[in-house]
Write a structure and sequence with these properties.
This protein is of the alpha/beta class. It has three domains: 34 residues; 201 residues, P-loop containing nucleotide triphosphate hydrolases (Rossmann fold); 172 residues, 2-Layer Sandwich (Ribosomal Protein S5, domain 2). The protein contains eleven helices and 21 strands. Strands 6-5-7-8-4-9-10-11-12 form a nine-stranded mixed beta sheet. It has a seven-stranded mixed beta sheet with strand order 15-16-14-13-17-20-21.
Amino acid sequence: MARSDTVYVCQSCGGVHAKWAGRCDACGSWNTLVEESGASAPLGSSAKAPSRSTRRSRLELVDLGSATEDPKRFETGLRELDRVAGGGLVPGSAVLVGGDPGIGKSTLLLQAVALLAKAGATAVYISGEEAADQVRRRARRLGLADAPVALAAETSLEVILDGLKKETPDIAVIDSVQTLWSDQLAAAPGTVAQVRACAQELVRFAKKKNTIIILVGHVTKDGQIAGPRVVEHMVDAVLYFEGERSHQFRILRAVKNRFGPTDEIGVFEMVDAGLQEVANPSALFLDGRGEAASGAAVFAGMEGTRPVLTEIQALVAPAAFGTPRRAVVGWDSGRLAMVLAVLEARCGLGFGGRDVYLNVAGGLKINEPAADLAVAAALISSFLDTALPAEGVAFGEISLSGDVRPVGRADARLKEAAKLGFNRALAPEGVEGAGVKVDSVSTVQALVRRLGQDAV
């Protein structure tokens, strides 16, 4: 019996199946298996592998301690982008940039390549979603029409590679990788096989020609870059461009970077002339903060090496229905459930019959556990209907026993608070700061007593 050349590839994880099924056995996703030709199956599938050459190459080994120079980076002129990239873009690197539709990915990259081109670098911008005239009109709107950037509108991988090999630019932007297709594969554009194969060829070109390749990727409903996760493993850096359309600022965050840290963020503000850098994000996040009100606490956080102050808002209200509601924006809902459980078990505060709403002002997403104390202070303030000091900040991690544990970089947090006019801080014991009066709290019980005294 002849063997079928058809395989079924999961569009979520890239898993290969011999027959169709409603659910992928690898990742558990439903209705994600798409029929593809066996010739387009990824490596490791049941497709027939090419025969190996009888000639063997010798493996070349080098000394680990041999001296190598650090690569010279290309500084884009956008300090926030250079900060996230680790000091600039490295020649021969591949960068994957993802974000929601309309968030400003194309605008950011067009500004970056235009500034690089004005500085003397050869830059190419290839769009698979827009015509060249559309990109040119956007450049005129951003005031970048005089930048010597080569434009092209193409989706064929072979045509793109032929053009790049002739030009050999310093930097090339591909917008986006989901629109590319190769005539060597029978799969449709945007499928796992096409995305993986096209990304692999572009990364190989970047390494051979020492060209910076920036790939723009679509995101799914979950906020993850669409396509197989193996693409994120191929590239050297993965950057996410985050933000809400209702807010004027955008955040560039690195989740993978082989040439720099992965905990830095860059903050941009969307204005009429494009994206503008924000030198002091704390002032932006606290902009418009009114008089002291119950349920509002200022958190002194850290984003990489940069201290960032933002307001955390909490509202505790009687539940209108039998089941109390928990709504969280900008923080981990599981972390909120833990803080509420600690306050109920250790302090006797009854949140069981009350709705709890928590919001991080400005749309910033906080991931570090140092926000526990600020969240607890905001919840207690709303529960007791008493306002926290308007000139105070809070930071500290809360354990399940109710203890407040110290966090790193306390001096940098307090210096940022003092620079913005804050002179008080709720912090774990042992924290000292010049110019800021530190109110040390060792347990959540001590926090409740302190805030209860302020209420009296």
